[in-house]
Automatic annotation (TrEMBL), chain A:
<dbReference type="InterPro" id="IPR000891">
    <property type="entry name" value="PYR_CT"/>
</dbReference>
<dbReference type="GO" id="GO:0046951">
    <property type="term" value="P:ketone body biosynthetic process"/>
</dbReference>
<feature type="domain" description="Pyruvate carboxyltransferase">
    <location>
        <begin position="48"/>
        <end position="315"/>
    </location>
</feature>
<dbReference type="GO" id="GO:0004419">
    <property type="term" value="F:hydroxymethylglutaryl-CoA lyase activity"/>
</dbReference>
<dbReference type="GO" id="GO:0006552">
    <property type="term" value="P:L-leucine catabolic process"/>
</dbReference>
<dbReference type="InterPro" id="IPR043594">
    <property type="entry name" value="HMGL"/>
</dbReference>
<keyword id="KW-0456">Lyase</keyword>
<dbReference type="GO" id="GO:0005783">
    <property type="term" value="C:endoplasmic reticulum"/>
</dbReference>
<protein>
    <recommendedName>
        <fullName>hydroxymethylglutaryl-CoA lyase</fullName>
        <ecNumber>4.1.3.4</ecNumber>
    </recommendedName>
</protein>
TrEMBL record, chain B:
<dbReference type="GO" id="GO:0007005">
    <property type="term" value="P:mitochondrion organization"/>
</dbReference>
<keyword id="KW-1015">Disulfide bond</keyword>
<dbReference type="GO" id="GO:0030145">
    <property type="term" value="F:manganese ion binding"/>
</dbReference>
<dbReference type="GO" id="GO:0032991">
    <property type="term" value="C:protein-containing complex"/>
</dbReference>
<dbReference type="InterPro" id="IPR043594">
    <property type="entry name" value="HMGL"/>
</dbReference>
<protein>
    <recommendedName>
        <fullName>Hydroxymethylglutaryl-CoA lyase, mitochondrial</fullName>
        <ecNumber>4.1.3.4</ecNumber>
    </recommendedName>
</protein>
<dbReference type="Pfam" id="PF00682">
    <property type="entry name" value="HMGL-like"/>
</dbReference>
<keyword id="KW-0576">Peroxisome</keyword>
<comment type="pathway">
    <text>Metabolic intermediate metabolism; (S)-3-hydroxy-3-methylglutaryl-CoA degradation; acetoacetate from (S)-3-hydroxy-3-methylglutaryl-CoA: step 1/1.</text>
</comment>
Length: 340, 309
């Protein structure tokens, strides 16, 4: 890279520089300048909805049990960033997921900002009823494209799980509560290895036809690459409308943003991510998990795509939770911006 | 997306840079001499065994500026030269070039920039003066039958000037190419680029220089490297620079990461069905080796996921 040591001292206004450009800026609307507009890739959606899963998927995979008040504070902070969907908690038995034992207190404790939705995971009817009693107005169900994963994860076959979800989704629809469906292992399974696009399509279709308004396709162990993402989406898009699809990429092998870019190029405009890249990977010790919301926003901002989210505020929320649980952020944008 | 399958190359030349271990990061500066010459030699040999076809070995720059590269001649003489593998070295000036040739270098690299301010701060001269220096090297290289690779820094943004116009990058790239560089590596030096900006820059450059003579050198400071590299591949670039274990930080953002990790790049390319000739397992071993020697964690996610800590 040449001789650099002395250069660091002279970089006086570097942070200022970044703030002035779209690289790290406020939400795109208002900050777009004509020169930057031309760098928008053709064929990309104009608006991308980010579904923030940090408080649920992220914290669920963190070893340290996070106190209830910290969780509530995190969600409240995220509510002020412009994010329109924040997955709050999971109404699952605390025996299975101790981190989510305080689901009711969290759901009741958060401030529900107007214009923000707060879905919760409900693996079965019992969880669903508890969620509704606690004030939930949107729920999610978690399927898998792998028989082995379904068995190990929720102790039943895919078919049995679909039966349970159907009960939940029907009840939800009856009460006018939207239900989102997740399909895990969409690009690979820790037990079965390769997962066929056809299987993913089959499971997605089941969830969609039972009434889920959106299906989030998850690369649960982050093994996917742009090629496998493309093949999977091509298959699913034959059966499910584009507008009802989302991608949920894990960054275990560093592939998340490249995979997300591929999905965007195919027209997907809903992306799941977690502030600070919270959550490791239970299948690869020491590995990272969710893609970091900050890094995702950075890319989307650079692409000229509207998200409505303020990157700085997300970074602040990320800084808060990392300090609270005493961990280093997994977000590269945060690492580059906060002099740790 | 049809464009993707047409544009993807069958073969890829990866470049793993040991120069990333140089004092280009404050941490490395503090760790001067922690990487001994035998360790550097062993790393390069391991990378050769891993199947990489181009391994940038060292930099013939004055030890006053980059103490970590003081052993450049010993390193170049000490490494095993595998058949079919090239070992370019950085030569910032004629003196360095001559020393490199004397030490057996068959390929050299020169480092330009698309920013006037960056050139001034980095190598203490104007862009015009830098071209004059490069011209001297290129002429000498031509007579000695030595290939020269050109680098252009700050192609997607500059820590001092901010935005860099694609036209400027195209101009500098064209200059280096016409002066005789066989390949130009376009570097997102501070990692600020995103795929759209990469596309715009490459579109401008490809109007002046054939895609086959281009490479991309993405930094992962903001986590964008692989996405940017994917965009470059979609546009027809088939040479990508990367660094084993993602070695090297970023001097402009303390604590931030630097180079794209070769392991993560190879993982993506293999997943895309692109032939690289690299044995990922052996590459992981090389990364593990140097991280232990440097007493630091790898920056490669693939390595983190594979090594059960």
């Amino acid at each position: 890279m040449g001789n650099v040591p002395s250069a660091v001292k002279h970089c006086l206004s570097y942070q200022q520089l970044l703030r002035e450009h779209l690289w790290i800026g406020d939400s795109v609307a208002g900050a777009l300048d004509p020169a930057q507009e031309t760098s928008q890739l053709s064929g990309l959606p104009e608006f991308v909805k980010i579904v923030e899963v940090g408080p649920r998927d992220g914290l669920q995979n963190e070893k340290v049990i996070v106190p209830t008040d910290i969780k509530i504070e995190l969600i409240n902070r995220l509510s002020q960033t412009g994010l329109s969907v924040i997955e709050v908690t999971s109404f699952v038995s605390s025996r299975w997921v101790p981190q989510m034992a305080d689901h009711t207190e969290v759901m009741k404790g958060i401030r529900q900002y107007p214009g923000v939705r707060y879905p919760v995971l409900t693996p079965n009817l019992q969880g669903f009823h508890r969620a509704v009693a606690a004030g939930a107005t949107e729920i999610s169900v978690f399927g898998a494209a792998s028989e082995s994963f379904s068995k190990k994860n929720i102790n039943c076959s895919i078919e049995e799980s679909m039966g349970k979800f159907e009960e939940v989704v029907k009840s939800a629809r009856h009460m006018n509560i939207p239900a989102r469906g997740y399909v895990s292992c969409a690009l690979g399974c820790p037990y079965e290895g390769i997962i066929t696009p056809q299987k993913v399509t089959e499971v997605s279709k089941r969830l969609y036809s039972m009434g889920c308004y959106e299906i989030s396709l998850g690369d649960t162990i982050g093994v996917g690459t742009p090629g496998s993402m493309k093949r999977m989406l091509e298959s699913v898009m034959k059966e499910i409308p584009l507008g009802a699809l989302a991608v949920h990429c894990h960054d275990t092998y560093g592939q998340a943003l490249a995979n997300i870019l591929t999905a965007l190029q195919m027209g997907i405009n809903v992306v799941d991510s977690a502030v600070s890249g919270l959550g490791g990977c239970p299948y690869a010790k020491g590995a990272s998990g969710n893609v970091a919301t900050e890094d995702l926003i950075y890319m989307l901002n650079g692409l000229g795509l509207n998200t409505g989210v303020n990157l700085y505020k997300v970074m602040e929320a990320g800084d808060f939770i990392c300090k609270a649980v005493n961990k280093t952020t997994n977000s590269k944008v945060a690492q580059a911006s906060f002099r740790a | 997306m049809a464009a993707m399958t047409k544009a993807l190359p069958r073969r890829l030349v990866g470049l793993a840079s040991l120069r990333a271990v140089s004092a280009s990061s404050p941490e490395a500066a503090a760790l001067q001499n922690i990487v001994s010459t035998p360790v550097k030699i062993k790393l390069i040999d391991m990378l050769s065994e891993a199947g990489l076809s181009v391994i940038e070995a060292t930099s013939f720059v004055s030890p006053k500026w980059v103490p970590q590269m003081a052993d450049h001649a010993e390193v170049l003489k000490g490494i095993q030269k595998f058949p079919g593998v090239t070992y370019p070295v950085l030569t910032p000036n004629l003196k360095g070039f001559e020393a490199a040739v004397a030490a057996g270098a068959k390929e050299v690299s020169i480092f330009g920039a698309a920013s006037e301010l960056f050139t001034k701060k980095n190598i203490n001269c104007s862009m015009e003066e830098s071209f004059q220096r490069f011209d001297a090297i290129l002429k000498a290289a031509q007579s000695a039958n030595i290939s020269v690779r050109g680098y252009v820094s700050c192609v997607l943004g500059c820590p001092y000037e901010g935005k860099i116009s694609p036209a400027k990058v195209a101009e500098v790239t064209k200059k280096l190419y016409s002066m005789g560089c066989y390949e130009i590596s376009l570097g997102d030096t501070i990692g600020v680029g995103t795929p759209g900006i990469m596309k715009d820059m490459l579109s401008a450059v490809m109007q002046e220089v054939p895609p086959a003579a281009l490479a991309v050198h993405c930094h992962d400071t903001y986590g964008q490297a692989l996405a940017n590299t994917l965009m470059a591949l979609q546009m027809g670039v088939s040479v990508v620079d990367s660094s084993v274990a993602g070695l090297g930080g970023c001097p402009y953002a303390q604590g931030a990461s630097g180079n794209l990790a070769t392991e993560d790049l190879v993982y993506m390319l293999e997943g895309l069905g692109i032939h690289t000739g690299v044995n990922l397992q052996k590459l992981l071993e090389a990364g593990n080796f140097i991280c232990q020697a440097l007493n630091r964690k790898t920056s490669s996610k693939v390595a983190q996921a594979t090594c059960k800590l």
